[in-house]
Amino acid sequence: MRTRVRLVVGVVAAAVLAGCSAAPAAAPPAAETSAPGASTAAPAAADGLAGMPPVTDPHNVYASAGANMLSDAAKAATPLVYVPETKSGDVRVVDPRTFATVGTYHLGGELQHVVPSWDMRTLYATDDTTNKVVPFDPVTGRPGAAIPVTDPYNMYATPDGKSAISVAEARRKLVFYDPHTWAVQGELPTPDCAGIDHADFTPDGRTAVFTCEFAGRVAVIDIEHRTLLRMIDMPQRNTTMGPQDIKLAPDGSVFYIADSDQNGVWVLDGAATKVLREIPTGGGAHGLYLSRDATQLYVTNRHEGSVSVLDAYTGAPITTWRIPGGGSPDMGNVTADGTQLWLSGRYDRAVYVLSTADGHLITKLDVGDGPHGLCVWPQPGRYSLGHTGITR
Asked: Which of 35, 18, 28 is nearest to 204 (CA)?
């Protein structure tokens, strides 16, 4: 469980690397609860957020992020895995071919996630106790100078690439930044979303859904106008380790929401207006990741050392992969070729590498204390929405 105490510590500003960070997206219906609160890419998708790269396949919004479909920026990156360690204050860098640690960088603070920028040219290690992000050059795998950012527990990028969003969990708000200068563009308070932490976007990029871990609900956000549209309670409001990661189904029909205390996944309709049903998975359901062809959804069950495999379109259970000897699979991602699933072992000072063919454990790596938002880089896709590498 992450440290709840947030220290407001000054951070020395420094050079800012070109590139954006990550954020939310997409559009639902009318609002219930309101609250106040954008380098562009390709032409806008039909009825989508202006400046967002168009959806190429309505049946699969991840169609441009298939196996080895790397952008020019991603092709320039050195294949590496970045492991932020919340307790040690280090980012460990691992060579995915040899499984050897090739660099360990002490950045201090409580490092939560390593987040790819919207343009995929920079990775950012987020630290919510000393209020900074540290850019990493994905070509060299080395860090740059720290950038002051308010309480970045997690980070996302708006689908148009115009804003980086710091998910300020302890302060219950979203802070929008210019992704090049890191000047603050605005803030959106979310006072009823205790534990705001993970997000995903509708296919049109206009609406984002953020989970509220300590409130048993989600916050639905209008990205274009930076307003809170509504709050939606889960049928069972778990408020200790409630709603965690969230993932849009490939066809945009539903959102899947992992709920650790519920030991399963809630299914929210694609318009983000109501919860449709529950899918039991396993103890401590936490992280959500898609297979490279977007047909399967991997659910990490952090408290029982397993991964549930679901049909990404229907949510139907397919199988369960169990880590030998148990473990605490948390956050990570699938490799660019789709053959491996890398996951941090949050409570076991470990990283697990699983085969996506049959779920067997390829290797278990010893790392530092509190490995969390592990980032496998490069990732396929045209742009990044943030977190540990949500790409489309």
From this structure: 28
Whether residue 333 is contained in a domain is answered as yes
36 is a domain residue? no
Please state, as a whole number, how many other Cβ atoms lie within 10 Å of the Cβ of residue 2: 17
Query: Is residue 121 domain-resident?
Result: yes
In the numeric block, the tokens 């380098």 are attached to 39
Q: What is the pLDDT of residues 288-342, one digit of tens each?
A: 999 999 999 999 999 999 999 999 999 999 999 999 999 999 999 999 999 999 9
Q: How many domains does the chain have?
A: 1
Domain encompassing residue 224? 63-391
pTM of full prediction above 0.85 = yes
**Residue 194 CB-density burial (10 A; 0-12 exposed, 13-18 middle, 19+ buried):** middle
pLDDT tens per residue across span 4-16: 333 333 333 333 3
- Give the number of other Cβ atoms within 10 Å of residue 382's Cβ: 20
DSSP class of residue 89 equals -
Residue 290 contacts residue 298 (beta carbons within 8 Å): yes
- CA-to-CA distance for 253 and 59, rounded, in angstroms? 9
Identify the CATH number of the domain in which residue 113 sits: 2.130.10.10
Q: Quote the tokens at residue 179.
A: 């992704």
Q: Please check whether residue 288 lies inside any domain of the structure.
A: yes
Residue 385 in tokens: 């929405």
Q: What tokens appear for 340 in the block?
A: 């491996």
Q: Tell me the longest C-alpha to C-alpha distance in the chain.
A: 52
